[in-house]
Amino acid sequence: MRVRKCGWLSIVSDMERDESLIVAFADELRARRSALELSQEELAHMVGVNRTYMAKLELAQNQPTLTVLQAIANALAVPLSELLGAVAVRQRRRSASTRSRK
Length: 102
Hints:
The protein is mostly helical and about 100 residues long. It has 5 helices and no strands.
């Protein structure tokens, strides 16, 4: 499905893309935390945020600031560029699978 950039249609397309990015980040965060066998509480403590905030990040209900993104990458012992690259790959896969279902 191709959406032309006109009026509210472009807004819907942008919102869908933003949502897929947020969900991809949430999935990557959860996967990396689980791989390290960390609880949300442990990771939240390492990052310097509340556990409920970490839970909301993993549920795609909140978006991190750049500062929090960097702290998450540090806590997961990966470069921020690697973390964001993995998120981009997840987003592309998610978008491709969504398109193939339509």
